[in-house]
């Protein structure tokens, strides 16, 4: 199965970016029709976050989101097999000077789950040593394969989420740059209910705590995709971060993430059950999903 998947992705690697973009549109339309459960999750999330948006508009956003995620699937061919020259040509870095100015300092690249994050991580590995925290795959063979492909450029270090925070702090102190996405629901442990588009969402305060423990500079960075390529924009360091209150820090970074999501609404990952964990006594939003 892995060989078949690798073979298909290797073939897609040879297709022009614009062709994969168009193929992703067709695949996304099909997935929108077939993936009933994920479609309902997306509809629930968009309804909660944008109650005043007309339903037709929300459905339009969700259809385009399925197209964006389908393109992500097909782009694994580029992530796993494309040359460094291809990555430099098709993933355009903006604001690299903000990273270069942090020479010798621990750095956290803070982002959210946007559709193009995989290719952006590979592109960043051409500029600096990048740590990515990942969840182990159920299949040991698939997990080993993905680990091999994601670290193939020699500048990438994958650390399992299950290993805890100590390896991450060690890597930061050794000069690795952490590519960090603290915007998913990992359950109630170490989480606070922070409003996400007005809806309380279980949110880890790890960005603030990691920055304080390591002395890292935090650089927001966000991805957007268009038919000709991907733009990965690195922003100026967060000023006066972290502060004395991890919850206030987290509210600040969530607000920043919300603003960047609005810049590329269909490209944010709406198929995740972001509001699965609820305050005690509150009914779940996905009980019928």
Short note summarizing the structure:
With 289 residues, this protein is α/β, with parallel strands linked by helices. It has twelve helices and nine strands. Helix 3 (36-49) crosses helix 4.
Written account of the structure:
The relative contact order is 0.16. The chain has helices at residues 2-12, 17-34, 36-49, 55-74, 76-81, 84-90, 96-100, 117-124, 140-150, 166-173, 206-214, 246-263; strands at residues 91-94, 107-110, 130-134, 156-160, 177-180, 191-196, 199-204, 217-226, 229-234. It is 47% helix and 17% strand. The strands form two sheets. A seven-stranded mixed sheet has the order 1-9-8-2-5-3-4, with helices on both faces. It has a two-stranded antiparallel sheet with strand order 6-7. The chain has a domain at 84-267. With 289 residues, the protein is α/β, with parallel strands linked by helices.
What is the general shape? globular
Report the structural category: alpha/beta
Query: Span from first to last CA?
Result: 29 Å
Number of separate helices? 12
- Let me know the number of strands: 9
Mean pLDDT: 92
The secondary-structure element order is: HHHHHHEHEHEHEHEEEHEEH
Helix content percent band:
40-55%
Strand order of the largest sheet: 1-9-8-2-5-3-4
Q: What are the segments in which pLDDT stays under 50 over at least 5 consecutive residues? A: none
Radius of gyration: 19 Å
């Amino acid at each position: 199965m892995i060989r078949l998947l690798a073979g298909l992705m290797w073939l897609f690697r040879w297709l022009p970016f614009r062709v994969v973009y168009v193929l992703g549109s067709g695949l996304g339309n099909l997935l929108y029709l077939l993936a009933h459960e994920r479609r309902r999750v997306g509809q629930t999330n968009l309804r909660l976050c944008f109650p005043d948006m007309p339903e037709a508009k929300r459905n339009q956003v969700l259809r385009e989101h399925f197209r964006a995620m389908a393109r992500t699937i097909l782009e694994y061919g580029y992530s796993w097999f494309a040359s460094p020259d291809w990555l430099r040509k098709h993933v355009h870095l903006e604001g690299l000077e903000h990273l270069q100015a942090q020479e010798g300092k621990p750095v956290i690249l803070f982002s959210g789950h946007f559709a193009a994050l995989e290719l952006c991580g590979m592109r960043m590995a051409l500029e600096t040593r990048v740590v990515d925290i990942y969840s182990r795959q159920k299949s040991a063979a698939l997990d080993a394969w993905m680990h091999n492909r994601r670290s193939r450029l020699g500048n990438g270090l994958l650390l399992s989420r299950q290993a805890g925070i100590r390896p991450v702090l060690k890597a930061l102190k050794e000069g690795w740059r952490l590519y960090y996405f603290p915007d998913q629901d990992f359950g109630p442990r170490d989480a606070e209910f922070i409003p996400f588009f007005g809806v309380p969402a279980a949110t880890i305060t790890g960005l603030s705590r990691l920055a304080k423990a390591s002395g890292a500079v935090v650089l927001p960075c966000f991805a957007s995709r268009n038919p000709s390529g991907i733009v990965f924009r690195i922003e100026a360091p967060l000023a006066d971060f972290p502060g004395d209150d991890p919850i206030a820090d987290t509210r600040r970074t969530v607000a920043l993430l919300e603003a960047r999501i609005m810049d590329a609404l269909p490209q944010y990952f709406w198929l995740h059950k972001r509001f699965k964990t609820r305050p005690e006594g509150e009914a779940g939003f996905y009980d019928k999903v």
